[in-house]
Amino acid sequence: MNKKNGNPMLQVEDIHISFGVLKALNGVSLEIHKGEILAIIGPNGAGKTSLVNVINGVYHPSRGHIFFEDKDLTTLSHHHIASLGIARTFQNVALFKGMTVLDNIMVGRNLKMGSNFFAQGIYWGFAQREEIRHRQVVEKVIDWLEIEHIRKTPAGMLPYGLQKRVELGRALAAEPKLLLLDEPMAGMNLEEKEDIARFILDANEELETTIALIEHDMGVVMDISDQVVVLDYGDKIAEGPPEKIRNNEKVIKAYLGTSAKK
Amino acid sequence: MIFAIEVAIGGLLVGVMYSLVALGFVLIYKSSGVFNFAQGDMTLLAALALVGFLTIFPLWLAILAVLVLMIALAIGIEAIVLRPLVARPPLALFMATIGLGFLLQGIGQGIWGTDPKGLNIGISDMPFEVKGLMVSQFDLVGAALSGALVFGLVWFFQKSKTGRALRAVSDDHEAALSVGIPLNKAWAITWAISGVVALVAGIMWGSRLGVQFSLSLIALKALPVLILGGIDSIPGAIIAGLVVGASENLAEVFLGPYVGGGIQTFFPYLLALLVLWFKPYGMFGREIIERV
Amino acid sequence: MIYRECGVFKATYGADMAIFPIPLDRWGIILILIVAFIGMPFLASDYWLSSILIPFLVFSLAALGLNFLTGYAGQLSLGHAAFMAVGAYASLILYGRYEVPLLLSLLGGGLVAAAVGTVFGIPSLRIKGFYLAVSTLAAQFIIEWGLTHWKWISGGVFGTVDTPPMEVFGWLIDTPLKKYYLVLCFVVLLTTFGKNLVRSQVGRAWMAIRDMDVAAEIIGISLFRHKLLAFAVSSFYAGVAGGLITFTYYGAANIEAFNLMVSFHLLGMVIIGGMGSILGSFFGGGFITLLPIFINQFARTFGAVFKTDLLACMELIIFGGLIIFFLIVEPFGLARLWLTLKEKLRLWPFPY
Asked: Does residue B39 belong to any structural domain of this protein?
């Protein structure tokens, strides 16, 4: 399905970044268009998480630019970038283990909440109304992700699959325009993967969120993505719709002919 | 000018003794990953026990007795405090050692009393001259002993098999467990070594200042040494100890009169804070990289 | 006692987010407040009021402040009593020297303490873990030195500044009962404020920073703002507590009353009472305040008269031992034990 309409939402141009002597990204460029699902794949160590970290503002590239809705993100802080409408999940679940599921997702609303600390201390009045308003949005997310039954459970006590789902909820609660998912299905069984895949597709269609996801499971990638970008040792070696990628020789070689053939 | 050098040397010698106390911390941290806030109280306990034993034993036997005591203490601490907390975050262990410190303080003073005692191990405090400078004989002996102990410990950790195993434990004790290193033995050994360090420090400082509660506060002096040098660096503890010793003395003598004196208490902390701002893990500490 | 929750269904989010969502709990707190405000004059002797209740309330307030910083925001602070000292001296100077009204002086003391606390919180933006814990000790020593050596503040190294008689809106506050009410009002108001803070976004941001500050920052929580805010708020509470205890208990501002040992007591209150729990701060405060009294009574019932020295040693042993005990057995302190008890009672008398 061709979703290209107008300027790409995210434009990554010629990004270079190194960690010491290790060159993580070697001139990578890509585009994400509004409303599409882009999968970023590649063998371990290819630079996928580094790419996402650069987009997110966690790292700053030594060379190259990133444009989000025509705004230059390259030198902005990750705080600033988050406020522009980019949210993400993390490879190793970065949930706040001591807080309940509800609180974890409410934290995702942080950038949307305006009341200052003094009003919050007084609570009754302005701050309470705002809390309730945000709670309503969060409850919608909880409903949507079907996790109502665990909303008061401390996140640290949840099984791994549910933790990943809560993390997705936290990112969605920020109502992002662009959602970066770093291996959202790592370590899950088939059922859990299907659930998350469904949620990702729903987020894309119902909530109109543009999604970039890093994923290893080729079946998932082929099924749900519109475009695929393949990285290998810091270089982009292929890009295009899933069917093209599946038969691309360079890609097959990079993976040593493993799950690319399905 | 001569005076300044004398002050500096005096400070350096004291600094070696600070290094020794700091080393006790570093050793425990390097091998069990625990920041032992109770080190100062262990020093006090060792000194109190020594004074107590000296009333019934000759010097060499008293020292031996305290040694046995400290080793027994180490084994006890490992079993009762450390083992139950093995899976917990390091901050919890740190707070447990704070509690341990109070416990040891209470026990030591409960048994041997709180009045200050003198400790005389036969080294006189007469100053003597070295190339025109006055140096305290006591400080010199203290520095020499401490230096020797430091060397021995460094050798032990770097060269011996046990030392290597201990370093592995500090890096990641769950991983060390999985390779078959007996965790409780390793911890017991380190705490015992630390106990020995505490004993020597106790002897040094106890002779110098008298054995009383304020001895445990020496540890508080060693803390800025630790964070200045990095809590997992042996050379860091040595160098930082010298820096702190010298600078605190110099500051007190030369800056003190302008601001009413009493700076030595906080000057090392101020120094450490300044350095930490630029090097958050101390001058030689290992940086902990968090990945998300 | 699951009947506690019978028929309690929340129809609105507001109701669910209330401080005491279960009506029985709400009535419990109202009862406690009634006893505290109205019942005390009849129930409590002057001794109880001035030697037990006032210190209990004040130290619980200070422990509450420390709890914000260490229990909620995860920044270990080993020198918190120093901020109490700042508040004590500041409020005394404001009231005694500049004749600022008492209530404003006490709040002003808190604000000065908050400012100082924020400055000493700056290292937390770069330093973490043990390094940060030890640098908080710097606050203790530097402030102690500053308050005693700066003549403008203390009038000399042996500075002990007596408090002038207290007056609020023309009323003289001279009896233990009146002092108790003054303290009680402050504590109730500030605790409510604090409870509101921790159930709002500020509290959540703090807890996020405690649990994983790298991730918190990436999803948009400003570490700078929230860490400094934690230092500021916690120091404010400590400062107000310091002012209160100086006026209503010690009668004079003396730096010795806020020494390193007091800092450790505060930390102990937080650990034993419960980290990250408002209620826990009060449990901890009560426990530490009552401990010496218990030991004394305990000794007396056995006919033994312990020397003060030995008593002090026993206190140390119990204090230290309990810190270790709670860390091993129940890291969330008495507050969690209390919650567990309530949970067990939910099903009482049908345990299975």
From this structure: yes
Tell me the per-residue pLDDT of C109-136, one tens digit each, with 9 for 90 and over.
Answer: 999 999 999 999 998 988 888 888 888 9
To the nearest whole Å, the CA of A205 is away from the closest chain B CA by: 29
- Is residue A41 helix, strand or coil? strand
CB atoms within 10 A of CB C260: 17
Whether residue B64 is predicted with pLDDT greater than 70 in this model: the reply is yes
- The pLDDT of residue A127: 84
Residues of chain C positioned with their CB less than 8 A from the CB of A139: 13
Q: Are residues B227 and C271, on separate chains, in Cβ contact within 8 Å?
A: no
Q: Is the pLDDT of residue A3 over 60?
A: no
Q: What is the pLDDT of residue C348?
A: 63
Cα–Cα nearest to C77, from C34, C17, C138, C27: C138
- From C56, C49, C54, C189, select the one nearest C110 (Cα to Cα): C189
Contacts of B42 in chain C (CB under 8 A): none
Residue B177: which CATH number?
A: 1.10.3470
Say what the pLDDT of residue A211 is: 94
Does C201 contact A120 at a Cβ distance shorter than 8 Å? yes
Q: How many residues does chain C have?
A: 352
Which residues in chain C have Cβ-Cβ distances shorter than 8 Å to B288? 128-129
Task: Give the pLDDT score at C351.
Answer: 55
Q: Supply the pLDDT for residue B44.
A: 84
pLDDT classification of C308: cutoffs 50, 70, 90: low
Residues of B with CB under 8 A from a CB of A: 291-292
CA distance B73 to chain A (A): 35
d(CA C234, CA A73): 36
**Lowest mean pLDDT, pick from A200-209, B100-109, C260-269, C300-309:** C300-309
- The superfamily (CATH) of domain A93-175 is P-loop containing nucleotide triphosphate hydrolases (3.40.50.300)
For C217, the token pair is 């920052």
| Domain A1-85+176-262 -> CATH class | alpha beta
Is the pLDDT reported for residue B195 higher than 90? no
CATH 1.20.50 fits C44-347, yes or no: no
Question: Which is nearest to B99 in space by CA: C21, C323, C56, A75?
Answer: C323
φ, ψ dihedrals at A88, nearest 5°: -150, 165
Please name the residue of chain C whose CA is at the shortest distance from the CA of residue A100: C204
pLDDT higher than threshold 70 for residue A78: yes
Please give the single-letter amino acid code of residue B45: L
Kindly report the nearest CA distance between residue B218 and chain C, in angstroms: 14
Both structure tokens of C186:
């402050």
B124 falls within a domain = no
Does residue B143 lie within any of the structural domains? yes
Question: Where in chain A do CATH 3.40.50.300 domains reside?
Answer: 1-85+176-262, 93-175
pLDDT tens figures, B211-254: 776 777 777 888 888 888 888 888 888 889 888 888 888 888 88
CA dist B62 and B146 (Å) reads: 20
Provide the residue ranges of all domains of chain C, joining segments of one domain with +.
1-43, 44-347
Amino acid letter at C286? Answer: G
Instruction: Report the distance separating Cα B154 and Cα A257, nearest Å.
Output: 52
B65 pLDDT more than 70: yes
Q: Which subunits have 3 or more CB–CB pairs within 8 Å of chain A?
A: B, C
Task: Give B282: exposed, middle or buried? Use CB within 10 Å, 0-12, 13-18, 19+.
Answer: buried
Measured between CB atoms, which of B95, B103, B266 is closest to C327? B95
Place of tokens 């000194």: B47
> Other C-beta atoms within 10 Å of C110: how many?
30
Q: Which of A27, A39, A41, A35 is nearest to A6 (CA)?
A: A35
Residue among C126, C264, C322 minimizing CB distance to B280 = C126
Residue B284 lies in a domain: no
Neighbours of C (≥3 Cβ pairs closer than 8 A)? A, B
